[in-house]
């Protein structure tokens, strides 16, 4: 009778020792370990956010003047004010203001309605999706607009992208249900064993081509779910402005191979545009898909040189590229 008791006590002590040892090896659960670092594309410096996204990307400080890059007035007749928000493409990097899609759409609006269109360009270089929405809220706190056009660019989720390193598989047991989730969340030792078994199972899933469960994340670049949820929240929060969204691709998108290399600029920009399109659809937003607009012949000369010399994807359109975007969006802007 004494021997079984010793075995039980010995087993309990062994489990406790393993638990303490696994806990001492790091604060996070074993399945959640592995470095998480800001994403920096290899081809150009990344935009690294220094603070968490504002919930819903709502600008609370509306006392100061809103960030206006430039303004222009076109047309004749009664007045109308149009707001264009976005990043450096909306700003018109590399072209004159009169050549931007904002001015071209504003001119078409003025001619269609016989008004003087006051074009307010709120483009902010490297704004990220949250910076774009915060600029929209800030402007609407100061002025009324007859049209609000919000451009989401291919890399606007970049500020919240991360790179997973170290562990081959990262998994969050809190995102599943049942006794496995409770044990894997409470016990580091159980989590360690669970993670070993899970990693082996993930290899089989990857080999079969089946989708991974949401609590599993493989190494490489990824966009946190919290970012995508906050993007949807931001779209819903801006709905009262009745905006029209433009989903803007990099000007050199057609230069990408049909099957881009994993974690390359081409691969992650296309993936992020799919994510933003899904967010716009899920929130029933009015948006114009510019991803199929042919702009391979309409990139800035300097960026075309970067592509030939260094393989850096051209992202900014020249005047012809802005015209192509404006032509694709004009009916949506006027029709509203």
List keywords for this structure.
10 helices; 336 residues; single chain; alpha/beta
Helicity, in percent? 40-55%
Taking all residues together, what is the mean pLDDT? 88
- Strand line-up across the major sheet: 2-4-3-5-10-11
Described by strand count, sense and barrel closure, the largest sheet is:
6 strands, mixed
| Number of separate helices | 10
- Low-pLDDT stretches are none
Radius of gyration: 25 Å
Strand content: 5-15%
What can you tell me about this protein's structure?
With 336 residues, this protein is of the alpha/beta class. Helices cover 42% and strands 15% of the residues. It has helices spanning 2-24, 88-91, 101-113, 128-140, 179-186, 188-208, 225-237, 265-282, 301-310, 319-335; strands at residues 36-38, 70-75, 79-86, 116-123, 147-153, 162-164, 170-171, 216-217, 220-222, 244-248, 287-289. The chain has a six-stranded mixed β-sheet, sandwiched between helices. A three-stranded antiparallel β-sheet has the order 1-6-9, with no helix packed on it. It has a two-stranded antiparallel sheet with strand order 7-8. The model has no long low-confidence stretch (mean pLDDT 88).
């Amino acid at each position: 009778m004494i021997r079984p008791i010793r075995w039980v006590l010995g087993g309990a002590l062994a489990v406790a020792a393993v638990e303490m040892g696994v806990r001492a090896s790091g604060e996070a659960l074993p399945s959640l370990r592995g470095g998480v670092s800001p994403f920096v594309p290899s081809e150009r410096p990344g935009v690294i956010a220094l603070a968490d996204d504002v919930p819903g990307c709502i600008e609370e400080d509306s006392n100061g003047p809103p960030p206006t890059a430039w303004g222009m007035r076109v047309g004749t007749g009664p007045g109308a004010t149009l707001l264009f928000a976005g990043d450096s493409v909306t700003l018109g990097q590399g072209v004159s203001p009169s050549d931007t899609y904002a001015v071209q759409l504003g001119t078409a609006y003025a001619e269609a309605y016989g008004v003087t269109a006051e074009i307010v360009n709120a483009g902010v270089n490297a704004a990220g999706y949250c910076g774009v929405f915060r600029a929209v809220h800030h402007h609407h706190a100061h002025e009324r607009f007859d049209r609000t056009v919000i451009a989401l660019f291919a890399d606007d989720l970049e500020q919240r992208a991360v790179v997973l390193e170290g562990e081959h598989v990262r998994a969050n047991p809190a995102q599943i249900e049942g006794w496995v989730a409770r044990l894997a969340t409470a016990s580091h030792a159980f989590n360690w064993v669970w993670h070993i078994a899970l990693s082996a199972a993930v290899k089989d899933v990857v080999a079969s081509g089946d989708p991974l469960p949401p609590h599993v994340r493989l190494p490489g670049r990824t966009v946190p779910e919290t970012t995508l949820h906050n993007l949807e929240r931001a779209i819903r929060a801006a709905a009262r402005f009745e905006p029209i969204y433009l989903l803007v691709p990099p000007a050199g998108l057609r230069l990408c191979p049909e099957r881009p290399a994993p974690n390359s600029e081409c691969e992650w920009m296309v993936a992020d545009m799919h994510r933003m399109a899904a967010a716009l659809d899920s929130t029933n937003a009015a948006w114009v898909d510019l991803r199929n607009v042919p702009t391979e012949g309409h990139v800035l000369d300097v960026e075309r040189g970067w592509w030939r010399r260094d393989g850096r994807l051209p992202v900014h359109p020249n005047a012809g590229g802005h015209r192509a975007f404006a032509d694709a969006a004009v009916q949506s802007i006027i029709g509203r």
